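Subject line: Sequence and fold of a protein, written as structure tokens
Enclosed: The protein record, placed directly beneath this head.
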Amino acid sequence: MIPRVTGDTALAAAWIVAVIATLSVLFIGEVLGQMPCLLCWYQRAFMFPLPIVLGLGLWWRDARVGRYGVALSLCGGALALWHMGLYVGVIPEPVQPCTATGPSCTDTNQLILGVPIPLLSLVAFTLTASLSALSLKDPHP
């Protein structure tokens, strides 16, 4: 029998994913010194508020905070999907925001354990959106 996931559990899992993603990109940029490209900056604008918003929702036991997690994650996920399209070459090269003189997510040094950063971003946004939506199915008491 599959255990039932409560809204609190789903929201806590979304918060954990958002915290790990936020700390990871801060580590990549601040410790490893890898400058993010333009699309990475835009994705960060949607990821950075998630730990705060979801964390406060958990703290205050706000049954509806998951909707903000969904909204932020869908926007960031759309950017990550576009970025992944650039990375794999589905979207034509001329629209790629990474320049030859600036940082580029297509470089081999932009892989984490062999996985491209845009894909990791897409996975993080997909998880936070899904878990935030799942938290809305079971409102807090």
Remarks:
- Helices lie at 7-31, 38-47, 49-60, 66-88, 117-137.
- The first helix runs from residue 7 to 31.
- The first strand starts at residue 111 and ends at 112.
